[in-house]
Structure to design on (282 residues):
C-alpha cells in the first residue's frame, strides 16, 4: 500500500490515470474474499482509538475498578492462549485483556488485539474452559482482522482514496468515532463467527483447556432460551453481535470430531478454580 501511495502522490501522475488505477484496485479488492486495505499498524492504531472511546464512555462501558486478582486471572488466561503456535500476530499486536463491570453477557475484541470481557459473561459461564473458548474466539477476530476486512468492504473506493493519498493523521480517529456510534464495530457476520469458532478450537488444542470450550458457552445460551421460552434480555446484545445459528454449533462439533483422539469434554474444564474466581466478582 505504501508503494501505491507514493506512486499516486507523484506530481506527474495524471488524474484520469489515477482514477482508472483506483477503480481497478477497488475492483480487485472487492473480488477478494478476505481483502483488507489496512495494515497491521492501522489495526493497532484503530484499536487504540476504540480504547480511548471506550474509556471516555464509563456509563456505557464501566470498566472494572480494583479487583486486580480477577483482572490478572483473565490476563493470564489470554496470555496462555496467545502461546498457541496458531497465533501469528502476538509480536505485532499489543494484546491486552480488560474487564467491563456490567451484567451484560458479552465479550468483544477491537482491531489490534484489545479484548474486553464483561463480568456478566464471567458469571454466566460455569467453568474456565468456557471462558477460555470465548477469549480464544475474540482473539481470533483480531488475528483474522475481521473488523478491518468489513471496513474495507464497507468504505470501498472512498476509503481507498483516503488511505492511498494519506497525509491525514485523523482518518483512523474519524473512522473509530463513526463506528463507535451505535456499536457498529461489534456486529460480526456469520462467516466471521464461524471462523472465530474454528480458530478458538485450534488455539485451545495446545492449551490445558478442553479445546471445545466455546461449546459450553453455546450450551448455556440454549439452556437459558429453553428455560425462559425466549431469548432473555441480557442476551440480546450478545446475539445481535454474535449470531448463533444451528449450523455454527454443528460446525464446531464437526471440527472437534476431526481431532484424534477426540478430546474428552469432562477434562480440562477447571470448574473448581473458576467457581472460586467467580466468588471474587463484584
Amino acid at each position: 500500500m505504501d508503494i501505491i501511495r507514493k506512486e499516486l502522490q507523484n506530481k506527474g501522475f495524471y488524474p484520469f490515470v489515477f482514477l482508472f488505477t483506483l477503480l481497478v484496485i477497488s475492483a480487485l479488492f472487492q473480488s477478494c474474499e478476505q481483502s483488507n486495505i489496512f495494515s497491521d499498524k492501522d489495526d493497532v492504531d484503530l484499536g487504540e482509538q476504540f480504547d480511548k472511546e471506550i474509556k471516555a464512555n464509563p456509563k456505557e462501558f464501566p470498566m472494572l475498578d480494583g479487583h486486580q486478582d480477577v483482572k490478572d486471572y483473565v490476563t493470564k488466561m489470554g496470555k496462555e492462549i496467545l502461546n498457541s503456535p496458531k497465533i501469528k500476530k502476538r509480536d505485532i499486536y499489543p494484546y491486552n485483556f480488560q474487564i467491563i463491570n456490567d451484567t451484560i453477557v458479552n465479550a468483544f475484541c477491537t482491531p489490534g488485539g484489545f479484548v474486553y470481557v464483561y463480568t456478566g459473561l464471567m458469571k454466566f459461564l460455569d467453568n474456565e474452559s468456557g471462558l477460555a473458548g470465548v477469549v480464544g474466539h475474540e482473539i481470533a477476530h483480531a488475528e483474522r482482522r475481521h473488523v478491518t476486512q468489513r471496513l474495507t468492504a464497507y468504505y470501498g473506493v472512498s476509503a481507498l482514496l483516503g488511505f492511498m493519498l494519506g497525509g491525514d493523521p485523523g482518518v483512523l480517529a474519524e473512522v473509530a468515532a463513526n463506528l463507535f456510534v451505535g456499536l457498529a464495530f461489534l456486529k460480526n457476520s456469520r462467516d466471521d463467527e464461524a471462523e472465530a469458532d474454528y480458530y478458538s478450537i485450534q488455539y485451545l488444542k495446545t492449551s490445558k483447556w478442553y479445546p471445545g470450550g466455546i461449546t459450553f458457552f453455546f450450551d448455556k445460551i440454549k439452556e437459558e432460551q429453553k428455560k425462559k421460552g425466549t431469548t432473555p434480555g441480557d442476551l440480546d446484545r450478545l446475539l445481535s453481535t454474535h449470531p448463533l445459528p444451528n449450523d455454527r454449533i454443528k460446525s464446531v462439533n464437526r471440527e472437534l470430531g476431526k481431532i484424534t483422539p477426540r478430546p474428552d469434554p469432562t477434562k480440562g474444564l477447571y470448574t473448581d478454580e473458576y467457581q472460586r474466581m467467580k466468588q471474587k466478582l463484584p
Observations:
- The chain has 13 helices and three strands.
- The radius of gyration is 20 Å.
- The chain has two domains: 2-39+147-171, 40-141+184-278.
